[in-house]
Amino acid sequence: KQEVTQIPAALSVPEGENLVLNCSFTDSAIYNLQWFRQDPGKGLTSLLLIQSSQREQTSGRLNASLDKSSGRSTLYIAASQPGDSATYLCAVNNRGRDDKIIFGKGTRLHILP
Amino acid sequence: NAGVTQTPKFRILKIGQSMTLQCTQDMNHNYMYWYRQDPGMGLKLIYYSVGAGITDKGEVPNGYNVSRSTTEDFPLRLELAAPSQTSVYFCASSYSGSSGVYEQYFGPGTRLTVT
Known about the structure:
The complex is a heterodimer.
Chain A: E1 4-5, E2 10-14, E3 19-25, E4 30-38, E5 44-51, E6 56-59, E7 62-67, E8 72-77, E9 86-94, E10 101-103, E11 107-112
Parallel strand pairs in A: 2-11
Antiparallel strand pairs in A: 1-3, 3-8, 4-5, 4-9, 6-7, 7-8, 9-10, 9-11
Chain B: E1 4-7, E2 10-13, E3 19-25, E4 31-38, E5 42-51, E6 54-57, E7 64-66, E8 76-78, E9 87-94, E10 96-97, E11 100-101, E12 105-106, E13 110-114
Parallel strand pairs in B: 2-13
Antiparallel strand pairs in B: 1-3, 3-8, 4-5, 4-9, 5-6, 7-8, 9-12, 9-13, 10-11
C-alpha cells in the first residue's frame, strides 16, 4: 500500500533563505508526483507536476525533483518571501490497478519577515 | 474558465439530516474526485469517477454516495449526517490518459459542521 510522508510537519525560516521541503513515498510504481500549496481556509493550488520519467520541474523560484528509485521528492524554494507561507502537500499518482492519488499530510511553512 | 466550483461554502447540519454537496467543472476533465480534509490528517479520498456513469469507492466511502450523470457534475450526497462527518470537503478534477493522471485542479471547499 502506497504511503506518502512529509517531514517536517512544520518549518519556520527567515525571509530570504533558500529552503527544501521533503516528500517520501513507499512504492516507486507511480505515474507522477504533484506538489500543491494550500493557504488557510482555501483549496489546493497545483505548483508543479513531475512525470515518472522526469528528474525535475521548475517554475519561477520553485524547483521540484524526483528520485523514483529512492522514493523521494524535494521542493526547493529560492529566496523565500512571507507570501510563501502556506502548507505544502505532495501527492503521488499510483500506477497499477487502483490508479489512485495519495497525499502526504503536508508541511506547514512559515516565513519570518 | 471557472475551473472547479463547489456549493455551498459552509453548512451546518443536525445529526440525521441529509444534504448534497455540489461540484461542477468546466474543463472537460474525465476524472473527478471527492476528498475530505480533517485537521492534521491530510486528504482522504471518499469517491472518485473516471467518467460519466462510472464511480468507485475511495478510502473512506461509508456514509456517502455519489453519482456522475454528466462529465461536468459530480455531487456528493450525505445521508443521515453524523458528527464524524464534520470536515472540509474538496472536489477535484483532472484529465487522465495513457500516461496516468495529469494535473489535479481543486475547488475552494465546503466546510461542513454536524451538531
